[in-house]
């Protein structure tokens, strides 16, 4: 399993998340024709662990970003709270949380950065 598939499983299986976004959970970006609230996630990077005996990775830590989007900041924050509960219960470590505003489209996002070991 990849970090992305484990993240999707955690989010789509969390009743508190799906009560807000239904099935609007997307890898990479939210399609233009879709509505908010929604969640999009993407891998930012991967750190590989090797040993002195082999250059073949024995483990990896993936860093992912999760954008929790809605038309009001308070609603994006509420969605992010539900996402945090879902992902921290599924072995993801929360590293960062920030707010962003897309002025052109009037969409708020609470952006979470998480790590995952596999």
3D structure, described in words:
There is one protein chain. The protein is α+β, with helices and mostly antiparallel strands and 118 residues long. The protein has a single domain (3-117), classed as Phage minor tail protein U (Alpha-Beta Plaits), CATH 3.30.70. It contains 3 helices and 5 strands; from the N terminus they run H-H-E-E-E-H-E-E. The protein has helices at 3-12, 15-21, 73-88, and strands at residues 25-27, 38-51, 54-70, 92-102, 107-117. The protein has a 5-stranded mixed sheet. Strand 4 (92-102) and strand 5 (107-117) form a beta hairpin. The model has no long low-confidence stretch (mean pLDDT 94).
Core attributes:
alpha+beta, elongated, 5 strands, Alpha-Beta Plaits, 118 residues
Count all strands and give the number. 5
CATH class: Alpha Beta
Strand content: over 45%
Taking pLDDT < 50 over at least 5 consecutive residues as the criterion, the unreliable ranges are none
List the quaternary state of the chains. single chain
CATH architecture classification name: 2-Layer Sandwich
Distance between the termini: 9 Å
How would you summarize the topology of this molecule?
Layout: H1 3-12, H2 15-21, E1 25-27, E2 38-51, E3 54-70, H3 73-88, E4 92-102, E5 107-117
Parallel strand pairs: 1-2
Antiparallel strand pairs: 2-3, 3-5, 4-5
Task: Tell me briefly what this model is.
The protein is α+β, with helices and mostly antiparallel strands and 118 residues long. It is built from three helices and five strands.
